[in-house]
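Write out this protein's structure.
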Amino acid sequence: MGKKLYGGNHAGAGHLHPANNTALGFRVWHNRINGISWTILIRLTTGYWNTVNGTVAFENATTAAGNTAIGVSSFRTNVTGFENVGVGINTGYHVTSGANTYIGSFAGEGAAGFSTGGSNTATGYFALSDIRSGFSNTAVGRMP
């Protein structure tokens, strides 16, 4: 199965497949109960080398690999992303691609259904928060 590290209340309950991942938080890798989910990495099937800490961070990931997400809802809708880094609330929330680095609350948050661009870097509160299909962008500073 590989190496795993769980931490938090109900951590690891119902988790079977992914290897070499680290997750900290309430009900990490915990199966859904009555359709309610305040968990992280619960859908991960074959993903690996992910480090996640934050409620619903990478919640929809299935085969994501090599990602680091620290913060509530960081990369929440990303399913197959690779090598993303998000530190802060909602960093990369709607981003579905890989090789992005977002540091600062709401940095690289994106737009639902439109944030497909990759290899972007943003540092600062709301920096590059409306990213959509752009590639190789760099933004530094706080958006007004």
